[in-house]
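Following up on my earlier thread - several people asked me to post the actual chain instead of describing it. Fair enough. Here it is, all 62 residues.
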Amino acid sequence: MQMRRLTRLTNAFSKKCDNLWAAYCLHFSYYNFCRIHRSIRVTPAMEASITNHVWELAELLA
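Reply from S.P.:
Thanks for posting it. Predicted structure:
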């Protein structure tokens, strides 16, 4: 439900496979490194000991 690119009837629909793949990668990176989850109260990357801090969006895009 977080990825509007998966629904055909929106303006965010990807016509090119490369654009869809880039949107997937960006979404899952944000989900795992930047977003704090309610159930575990940290990011999934912090829970898996991949990183020790919550990433800022600028840090993710750099």
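The CA atoms of residues 17 and 55 lie 27 Å apart. That should answer part of your original question.
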